[in-house]
Automatic annotation (TrEMBL):
Residues 1-138 are annotated as: Disordered. InterPro entries: DD_DDX21-DDX50 (IPR059027), DEAD/DEAH_box_helicase_dom (IPR011545), DEAD/DEAH_RhlB (IPR044742), DEAD_box_RNA_helicase (IPR050079), GUCT (IPR012562), Helicase_ATP-bd (IPR014001), Helicase_C-like (IPR001650), P-loop_NTPase (IPR027417). This is RNA helicase. It comes from Tribonema minus. Residues 47-60 have a biased composition (Acidic residues).
């Protein structure tokens, strides 16, 4: 991986958000760029989307965001138009250019040998004015870093040969003792980003050979039990020679206290249990060298600020009135609200590093995730989720995580008759023993559908292929919770894998999706509920894939029955009947609405030659052609975003009367794909 070296970024500078300054190009640079553009024209005309393009000036100055996008997409941002650049250059100010150049010189002068050795693995920052060509980001090998052989061996046993960008960017800084804030999209390896350099720091200090009854040198605080156990597992598998223990609520005190008394190097825990252990005198932090906050945004959002302050004071020795100790503080998160930055300013050193692989990047959510919006009335929620799992999770053979807003909704959903797949709940009322049993079953594939609340699902350390939001996430005050959406969708599409996140919405919550779109800068794909043909096709495909697992020695035992069936019904019909039996679709499926997934309804599409101003325009045309009993049965009229079409539902029983009209006119047809719907102004104003 080749990226430009970056000087340390002061958080105070970032908070002030000094406007980016453009660096003027020389005539020679302009000429070279023009020649390069002309050379690339034939390829662009040929539709090759894989061509590498040149970074524009603003993207060079906001390099952290570029690097994150390149890591996810494998390509850099597109070039700005010359007209746009000319307009921007007219607003440049000479003193600001000089200040920018001076910043770059100081950054270069301050670089020491250790930092320089990792130049190719570090992010660009706002202070850079170095022009560089964009290139697909390569994950650097672990052999490119100063990592001990024993640690490399353990990493490779885990199948880790290369480091993700957030891991590569932060390694040298953490190892050199810098306080650091790391931000990367969910699923991009933040845990190992702090675990690896901390482990190396401990090994270099010969910590693993210390006395048996030793106090912890590392304290990691995580918001949930699941995340704490995941973090501890990363430490244990990467450095089994170090002693790691996990402390969290919902489990007996005695085993955790005994582990602390025997002596540990690394403690990973949740805020409540950490404070309890401190108050009981079993957790001593006066020899702690590292204090790490994982998922810091979630921790503060859950109201753990006081606990964090108390732990900080204990680590620094302030609680005993002794001289303040220096503790290296690391803060990692997928999002970075302003109040997280304020906490960093209060508790971290002035020369703290800020490694941001999201930054001001337009895209906030993972680009490896397809974001899908599906309309659904609340009463058909369970059956819609069941159909979505059938279509998007290979007939239920892939892991699916369903998010609900409350514990009550989780419990209601798992017992709903509309869900045919085995599923289990995960929320705050589940006992710790049941939680561990549930997660173990989900991990092993004993069941494929997990229904969870936001907090309970934090820190899941397994691959999920499909995420379904039973409704758009919201805060306690009822506002759209865009940060929760980023975290939820980040449960899939992790570490470069592709994933799908589907959000169900009602007409009242449709505006919430527009707010989420504006925040994550990822457009939703607007689709209707799966139709019978989609469900059967997905089930048949999954059944065909499962046939590959059949032992060939079993087949001859069915040969006689197969020959008889083929003789009676023909080969194709016999196989169709067998697939219908295997998938459980032995009876014709009733029509389903694209708008709401209501059974027994068909969605129709009305097309106008001019823009449709009001639904009454559509009603007038329909009443001229359809019987009154049909028009009175119409429901859910919606004007689409393009304004020239409208969709609505009619009972399936009315299709016998409507079909002749569809055959006669060219402005009415059965809708097979849900078009993007129009969002009314009042819906947006209610956000």
């Amino acid at each position: 991986m080749s990226t430009a070296a970056a000087a340390p970024v002061n958080m105070d500078d970032i908070e002030d958000e000094v406007p980016a300054v453009k660096v003027k190009k020389t005539k020679k640079e302009k000429k070279e760029k023009k020649e390069k553009k002309e050379k690339s024209k034939p390829k662009q005309d040929g539709g090759d989307d894989g061509d590498e393009e040149q970074l524009n000036d603003e993207e060079q100055l906001n390099g952290n965001a570029d690097l994150a996008d390149a890591a996810v997409d494998g390509e850099a941002a597109a070039t700005e138009s010359p007209k746009k650049k000319k307009k921007k250059r007219s607003r440049e100010v000479e003193p600001e250019e000089e200040a920018l150049e001076e910043t770059a010189k100081v950054a270069k002068a301050d670089e020491d040998d250790t930092v320089a050795s990792a130049r190719n693995h570090r992010p660009r920052t706002r202070s850079m004015d170095v022009k560089e060509e964009s290139a697909p980001v390569q994950h650097p090998s672990v052999d490119d870093f100063e990592i001990s052989e024993v640690t490399k061996t353990h990493l490779k046993k885990r199948g880790i040969e290369n480091l993700f960008p957030i891991q590569a960017q932060t390694y040298v800084h953490i190892l050199s003792g810098k306080d650091l804030i790391g931000r990367a999209r969910t699923g991009m390896g933040k845990t190992l980003a702090f675990a690896l350099p901390v482990i190396e720091g401990l090994l270099r200090g010969n910590i693993g050979a210390a006395a048996a009854r030793r106090f912890p040198r590392v304290l990691v605080m995580a918001p949930t039990r699941e995340l704490a156990k995941q973090v501890a597992a990363d430490f244990e598998s990467t450095a089994p020679q170090l002693r790691t223990t996990t402390i969290y609520g919902g489990a007996p005190y005695r085993p955790q206290e005994e582990a602390l008394r025997r002596g540990v190097d690394i403690v990973v825990g949740t805020p409540g249990r950490i404070i309890d252990m401190m108050d009981r005198g079993t957790l001593k932090l006066d020899q702690t060298d590292y204090f790490i906050l994982d998922e810091a945004d979630q921790m503060l959002d859950m109201g753990f600020k006081e606990e964090m302050e108390k732990v900080f004071a204990q680590c620094r020795g302030e609680a005993d009135g002794a001289e303040r100790r220096e503790v290296q503080t690391l803060l990692f998160s997928a999002t970075m609200p302003e109040w997280v930055q304020r906490v960093a300013k209060d508790y971290m050193k002035a020369d703290r590093m800020y490694i941001d692989l999201v930054g001001n990047s337009a895209v906030k959510a993972s680009q490896d995730v397809q974001h899908v919006a599906v309309p659904c009335q609340w009463q058909t929620r369970a059956s819609t989720i069941n159909d979505l799992i059938s279509v998007y999770a290979a007939g239920g053979s892939k892991r699916t995580l369903v998010f609900c807003s409350t514990k009550k909704q989780c419990n209601e959903l798992i017992v709903d008759e509309g869900i045919s797949f085995e599923c289990q709940p995960l929320h705050g009322d589940i006992t710790q023993a049941n939680r561990e049993s549930t997660l173990s079953g989900f991990r092993k594939g004993s069941f494929k559908v997990l229904v969870a609340t936001d907090v309970a699902a934090r820190g899941l350390d397994m691959t999920v292929d499909l995420v379904i939001n039973a409704e758009p996430p919201s805060t306690a005050s009822g506002r759209v919770d865009t940060e929760a959406y980023v975290h939820r969708s980040g449960r899939t599409g992790r570490a470069g894998r592709k994933g799908v996140c589907i959000t169900l919405y009602t007409p009242r919550s449709r505006g919430a999706l527009a707010e989420i779109e504006r925040h994550i800068k990822n457009a939703f794909v607007w689709r209707g509920s799966p139709q019978p043909d989609d469900i059967i096709a997905a089930s048949a495909e999954a059944a065909v894939e499962d046939m590959a697992d059949i032992d060939d020695n079993v087949l001859p035992r069915f040969a006689s029955a197969a020959r008889a069936l083929i003789a009676e019904r023909g080969a194709e019909e016999a196989l169709c009947a067998a697939l219908a039996m295997i998938t459980g679709h032995t009876k014709a499926l009733a029509a389903r609405s694209l708008l709401s997934n209501s059974t027994g309804f068909v969605t129709l599409l009305y097309t106008s030659a001019v823009d449709i101003g009001y639904p009454s325009d559509v009603w007038a045309a329909l009443r001229r052609k359809l019987d009154p009993d049909v028009t009175e049965s119409i429901r859910g009229m919606q004007i689409t975003a393009e304004q020239k079409t409208a969709i609505f539902d009619v009972p399936e029983r009315c299709m016998r009367t409507i079909q002749p009209v569809i055959d006669e006119v060219d402005w009415l047809e059965v809708c097979t794909t849900l078009p993007e719907l129009n969002i009314r102004r009042e819906e947006l104003c209610s956000l």
